[in-house]
Automatic annotation (TrEMBL):
Gene3D superfamilies: Sodium/glucose cotransporter (1.20.1730.10). This is Sodium:solute symporter. GO terms for biological process: sodium ion transport. It comes from Marinobacter salsuginis. InterPro entries: Na/Glc_symporter_sf, Na/solute_symporter, Sodium:Solute_Symporter. The keyword Transmembrane helix applies.
């Protein structure tokens, strides 16, 4: 960076951090810190909740991945990644049913009541791994606009961004997170519009919107993976699911549906950045937004960096607050070592500080941000039958474990390359991923229903014997 570029980028980062801290409200009680209520105990409003869900799920790594897939496969790649946002309405509807049918106050409460305490512990471990990954995968994207991995600017920007986000998260917890999400949503939409204003005139619109082919080896396999993971992927992300319990059921459902549809549109639109790169022969080099920004000049690169900072900030503050709730509230209750009374805000603050440090360690080691989505989504495929078919059982711990651990095992085998080649569907880059998710869904579903079927058969045999 030259002096002008450095002043612009570092200056915005500093201003962003200060403004977010000054504007974010301070929580005065645990109900506000952990549940997002105001000082009078009123829940989050519908539109604030909608904006929060919308922007907190548009991770920096997500828009980067969407653009990279647009560069690789055209609009098919963009549609594939944007389809993950359709899982938000799915999650909202399932949580609506859980709340209205079972009265559960959280997903942990629901799992404990239907599948036992061990099931909730396994679920808690899965979401903690997900939250841990969210820290480094978002700060690394921000650092990439200040330098390359290995350069001090890269790490300094990522850590400074972490400190700023941590500061206002400590100030207000979930209330602060939701409040700043509204601001970040408006900033995000404005600068995405500014980016499109630069890109669309540089291309033939029809070519921009039709580039790509719906073939398995041209990105369509990843689109099918996304559609399969709609029913499992959202449930292992407390950044999303925690927001399903902070307002009335119908208000929550409306917010989830609107936020999911808006997210789908926003992510697909941003994937056109990658399609622009594809049409104009711009080498993405693993970061299509940065490559396109550099090709269009300083203003475009700055716009891209603002989009990344706002999306990363909204996700990172939500990650900190979800970690605080998971470790300070949910796990102690699960271990039966806490009452229904919320712990002090200090406990949640300590959790945030620890994970702000530990969560960035993988960034220094170097990792692939796309794998943070696709692999973790595969490992939790066993959650789909649990949340889709819970109505078939009142109490069946084995149904959860046979489904959940089977999915986790398949995900691990995929990650280490031990799945047989015959499982692949098609011959594209994501052929094996598609095969594991398709066959895995069927196997996990069979595992879920097996105890119910055996119990019914045993009951019939007993009845026949008594007769």
């Amino acid at each position: 960076m030259n002096f002008t570029e450095a002043s612009l980028f570092w200056g915005f980062l500093l201003v962003y951090g200060v403004v977010m801290y000054v504007l974010s409200p301070k929580s005065k009680n645990a109900n506000s810190f952990y549940k997002g209520a105001d000082d009078q105990g009123n829940p989050v409003g519908q539109w604030s909740l909608t904006a929060s869900i919308f922007i907190s799920w548009i991770f920096a790594k997500s828009v980067t991945n969407a653009a990279n897939l647009g560069a690789a496969y055209g609009v098919v790649g963009g549609l594939a990644y944007a389809s993950y946002w359709l899982s938000i309405p799915v999650a909202g509807y399932v949580i609506y049913l859980i709340r209205t049918q079972t009265g559960a106050k959280s997903l942990q409460d629901f799992l404990t009541s239907r599948f036992g305490r061990l099931a909730s512990l396994a679920f808690a471990a899965a979401i903690l791994i997900r939250l841990y990954n969210e820290v480094w995968s978002n700060t690394a994207v921000v650092g990439g606009y200040f330098g390359l991995p290995g350069e001090w600017e890269y790490y300094a920007a990522a850590m400074l961004f972490t400190v700023f986000t941590l500061a206002y998260s400590l100030k207000g917890g979930l209330r602060s997170s939701i409040f700043t999400d509204v601001i970040q949503a408006f900033v995000f939409v404005f600068f995405v519009g500014a980016v499109l204003f630069l890109i669309i005139p540089a291309n033939d619109t029809s070519a921009l919107l039709t580039n790509g082919e719906f073939r398995l080896n041209a990105g369509f396999d990843l689109l099918l993976v996304a559609l399969l993971q709609l029913f499992s992927y959202p449930f292992h992300d407390p950044v999303l699911t925690d927001r399903g319990f902070v307002n009335k059921e119908k208000t929550m459902l409306k917010s989830f549906v609107v936020a999911g549809l808006l997210g789908f549109v926003a992510v697909f639109i941003f994937s056109l950045v990658g399609v622009h790169a594809r049409l104009n022969g711009i080498e993405a080099m693993g970061n299509a937004p940065a490559a396109v920004g550099q090709s269009l000049g300083l203003a475009a690169l700055f716009f891209m960096s603002v989009v990344m900072m706002t999306s990363a900030g909204s996700t990172l503050d939500s990650t900190f607050t979800s970690l605080a709730k998971s470790l300070a509230v949910d796990l102690p209750r699960l271990a039966q070592r806490a009452s229904d009374k919320l712990p002090s805000m200090r406990v949640g603050a300590v959790v945030m500080v620890i994970f702000a440090f530990l969560g960035n360690l993988p960034m220094f080691a170097g990792t692939d941000i796309l794998k943070a989505t696709t692999i973790s989504g595969t490992m939790v495929m066993g959650l789909a039958p649990v949340f889709l078919f819970y109505g078939f059982t009142k109490w069946s711990p084995w149904s959860f474990h046979l489904s959940f651990w089977t999915g986790l095992g398949l995900g691990v085998l995929l990650a280490v390359g031990l799945i047989p080649a015959s499982w692949a569907i098609g011959d594209g880059k994501y052929a094996m991923l598609l095969g594991v998710n398709a066959y895995g869904f069927l196997i996990c579903t069979a595992g879920f229903f097996a105890p119910l079927l055996l119990r019914r058969l045993a009951g019939r045999s007993l009845a026949a014997g008594e007769a």
